[in-house]
Amino acid sequence: MMQLLSTLLLASGLATATPLNIPNFAQAAIDSGLALKGLNALATLSALTRSGGTCTQNKIKYRREWRTLTKPDRRKFIAAVKCLQGKPSVLPKDGTVPGAITLWDDLAYAHAWRTFFVHMSATFLVWHRYFLFTYESLLETECGWTQGLPYWEWGLDEHDMRGSPLFDGSDTSIGSDGVFIPGRPDFILDIFGGPDPEPVRVVFPPGTGGGCIERGPFSDTVVRIGPFPLDGTPWTNETGYGNNPRCLDRDLNTNPIKRWSTFRNSTELILNYDNIREFQGFLEGDPRVTTEKPIGIHGGGHWAVGGITRDPIISPYDPAFYFHHNQLDRIYWIWQNLDFDNRKDVFGTGTWGNFPPSPNVTVEDFIDVLPHKPAIKIKDSMNTVSGAPFCYVYV
């Protein structure tokens, strides 16, 4: 592993770099992903110097890009996720979430009820990091997956989503595109909350699917809770969290990747911002920070998968959610580890766009994924090799 990291550093011109003295990259290195690989290698070397507690070198999980796993390992991972989808829910049977039949439903619910507290808020990155860890832990304890959680490098699929090893519909993918639905209009997304009272309008062309996943693993996945109205229409536990079985849909689309989630987008995000407000604001496309990049790499990945993954509330029903957010955590993790001592804070309040107004969040506040993971202080989510609770790096 160390030899591989050293090779990547040399190839990227980073072998003698320090966290605060990263050299300028040639545009070709940025656009090809070579620069991002070099930054990842440097971040890994930095992180490994801080491993401690129960996170000894032999226990560190290495999170890898999907296509770098062997095909047998991909099949093992798919089997573990399917196993998790078949495990019974552990939520209380008190009528709060009548649609929670399996652990897969539990995870969707965990994200759903926190949606307006963990997006466009101070806890976006740290809570999703803990959520991914919860998922990874359940895959291990319930279904025997002992390797690191794989991620999806969007830049590799900028020109062909349907041919991606993640979405090609083979038995080593997470299923194909949705059934193609012709004649659909553009999607129009109006984003409010910026300095101008008028919204920022973003237009997406339809993708190459739109219907239920056509073939491959997870084409039989059942979505139960939701959908939730996003226009303020009231809903109850029975209508929102009830058992409303339906298929998992996708609408693969390279357009959002080309606009917001390329190698250049990811690399420039890491290099251009040295504080959490700007870094997270541009990553999320927070209109209070930027109206020029209103979707960010976060939205780019969600809209590239399409279907339920566009839904900000119940997107974890698609296994693609975890690959996408693991890549987001990877970008955040690289950024942090290039200057770790100065990148362990949060910025903002505890509600979406500070609506309704809420107190500022600090690293002394708590996050949780109850009942699956207990509350931890935000400050304990910063070091992923402390052993309290995390023990992973990205390669």
From TrEMBL:
Pinpoint the Tyrosinase copper-binding domain residues: 119-136, 318-329
The answer to whether the entry has keyword Nucleus is no
Q: Does the keyword ATP-binding apply?
A: no
The signal sequence is 1-17
A Pfam family name for this chain? Tyrosinase
* GO terms assigned for molecular function: metal ion binding; oxidoreductase activity
The record's annotation in SUPFAM superfamilies points to: Di-copper centre-containing domain
Q: Which UniProt keywords apply?
A: Metal-binding, Oxidoreductase, Signal
> What is this protein identified as?
Tyrosinase copper-binding domain-containing protein
